[in-house]
Task: structure prediction
Amino acid sequence: MAEFERIVILTGAGISAESGIDTFRSAGGLWEQHRVEDVATPEGFARDPHLVLNFYDMRRAALSKVEPNPAHEALARLEREFSGELLLVTQNVDDLHQRGGSGKVLHMHGELKSALCTSCEMRSRWEAPMLDRPPCPICRAPTLRPDVVWFGEMPYEMARIYHALETCDLFVSIGTSGAVYPAAGFVQEARANGARTLELNLEPSEGSRLFHETRLGPASQLVPQWVDEVLGG
Ligand code: BJW
Result:
């Protein structure tokens, strides 16, 4: 593979699928059992906070039962050994990139292990349930919600991401369906600025035709192979 100096990687639910975390849009996936409007919108939370807090409490608790897979570990190796600039952006709210060894991960859709206080708007590291409405560690108000980005809300760190997309020479999308914006538009943004674009996915995503190259297969195989190529190993 040609030498690259600035790489942006976007990951989605597919990278964690082989660790045992359901994707959203597969049959039997996370949305299959829930209406998106009920559990992933501010309106759904306002309507039924109990349902939403319980949904996220269960997903947070389930993190202790899963482990990073070779795809997460390969991206951590890339971070350690790549001599250029690397930005790892994930849409995932799990912590498997960090536990796989990545030190710098930008969680554009938030994190299960973070709480957002709707009173003081501060974010706090959070591992416990929220269903019993515990107080905010900062302002003490019982108004915590999951620190995740729901439909209609602004994802985190967009300025930093768009700046990296404008200047990267390689954009790689791993295990995401390309169904949710703004992440689904990153490939066009990078391409418009001259980057090479590569998709690694189990099956073609909605935006596959937008990439210069698509490789199909499980992330646990494709990602370590690609990292070996980049590192010349
Ligand atoms: C494997 C594999 C294996 C399986 N190996 N691969 C019309 C046009 C444009 C935009 C909009 C529009 N109408 C509405 C919007 C905006 C809306 C949106 O995109 N809606 C769409 C439905 C069209 N977006 C928003 O509201 C966003 N905010 C926003 O736009 O703000 C305004 C703004 C303006 C300008 C700039 C910036 C912003 C917010 C979106 C928030 C999404 N939140 C969620 C929930 C997070 C919390 C939680 O986890 O509960 O994020 S929704 C859900 O989807 C979650 C995911 O991060 C996200 C993406 O899902 P992902 O990761 O792609 O998973 P799947 O399941 O879809 O796909 C899995 C993939 O893995 C598949 O491709 C498989 O093939 C693959 N796979 N096994 C490799 N082993």
